[in-house]
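Continuing from the previous page of notes. For each protein in this section, the sequence appears first, followed by its structure tokens. Read the first protein now.
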Amino acid sequence: MDNEAVSCPTYRLIGDPGPSLQHAVISGCALWLVLDPQSHEQALARLYEYEPNADISELFHKTQLQNLHDFSPRVAPIEPQSPMLRWLFDENPGNWGMVLASDAPQDEILDHLRSLLLVKTDGESVILRIWDGSVLNSLCSALPEEIPLLLGPVRRVVARTDRQEWACIDRDGNAFMQTPHQPRQPLPCPWYLLTQRHERAFQNQRPAVLTHNISEFLLHEKSWPVLPLPPTERLRPFVARHVERGMELGLWCAEALELFVRCCLLHGESFPDVRPVPAPFSRSPIDEDMAILAMRRICNPGGNHD
């Protein structure tokens, strides 16, 4: 057996995920695949093809995101030698998810993951892509003291980082599987608080996280059908382009970037150049608070430009 799998500290990069997964199974854990079906056009079909008898659960079920059925990640028991894992490891679709090792029941694992789908920040709740292994890696590598809270009943996580390296995250460090499982009551969602320290951990991934959150919010709200898209583009690529444009202009907070995307949808994707430029956008550096007020008026049907 690979020695790196036997003594995996709290967080470390590994070369091959296989030994770490096999070691977890030998130690008494079951494995669970968390799969984002949006990561690859064949991802969900492959899961049902390779694991036809698996008890597959939708992560968004029984949560505030349950209406986003098509976007919900799937959680399924998996074996280390599953052809599904081999396909994922070989195909490597971006941000496909992660593999969990735990001796807890499936319901307890699902309850914990669902409790982290929404997190608190700046007095509001936002979506956390807890099912994305690269997001969890960013948090755990930057804030290792948070690992026990983030993993909950999960003993080990194996996933790719945003640099496409493999990482192994152990809740108990070198004490892996040395204490018996203690059942945990699910926490009410949201309970986890994001701070400026978390924001720094997401520095490189922030555009992708914002793109996901803004896209899902627009899809979920009732007014979405009135927001027109370019005829040859889907929502998420559109949002990604304009989140990047907004950040280049100097916008930073989530509300400012969401309003910027809305303005681009409502008033032309070259906003603010396609209309009389709102005063805050003509200044450098941009005054984000004033820009937010201006964009709120622009998005309001009765609003006027500055």
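Done with the first. The second protein uses the same format. Note its length before scrolling.
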Amino acid sequence: MARSAIINVMVQAAYKAGRSLVRDFGEVQNLQVSVKGPGDYVSQADRKAEEIVYRELTHARPGYSLLMEERGEVEGTDTQHRWIVDPLDGTTNFLHGIPIFGISIALERQGQIVAGVIYNPAMDELYTAERGGGAFFNDRRIRVAARNRLAESVIATGIPHLGRGHHGNALRELRNVMGECSGIRRCGAASIDLAWVASGRFDGFWEHALSPWDMAAGILLIREAGGFVSDIDGGQDMLGTGTIVAGNEDIHRQLRTVLAKPV
């Protein structure tokens, strides 16, 4: 597969940050688990990965604006383009030695996501997409799963934990979905969940309280893989509302219907 210049820039940044994270991942597995030590260590790994991505992207496209998890908004001279970056999605997995975490990089042009890269360095899995050009996993074309019944589907989600989210609403939604599908998975990294929907590993996904950098690249991947993505109410402001529902056309529709049911 011949990659475009912009995808090459994004992949290069993801690979470099990924090598740094893999080195730190090997170290964090050997640390004694405590709130302070490993937590601080992971924060350092996160910031180091973001610095690498920042350097790579700003060197290749000096004027572009950025939205990054650690740095926040960085205004550039080119206000038509914005990078949206999560240098380490799945921090808790990383901390516990679980090899499901990723680097997510998206490019937004005039409010539209036009390119996306998600890379899991622990598994060496690279997902790329460009608007109108399809979606790829390690340079092989991917499509969303073709199952059209929720009862046959495996659905991924995020589950709120201590101090996060509306637990009562999450339990309502889980109860509704678990009674209608073949299985529910919670992997702990939304960008990877979305990539796995795009590649057909998962049939659908929903979550609340996400940030733009969690979703931006994954939204494009799923669309370019033939899938459907909306916010929880069926609108297209996922980055604004922080909610997302994804799948093929049938699963997306059925999942939204089930999520809206009362207990």
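What the second structure shows: Residues 150-259 form a domain with the D-Maltodextrin-Binding Protein; domain 2 fold (CATH 3.40.190.80). Confidence is low (pLDDT under 50) at residues 32-37. We return to this in next week's lecture.
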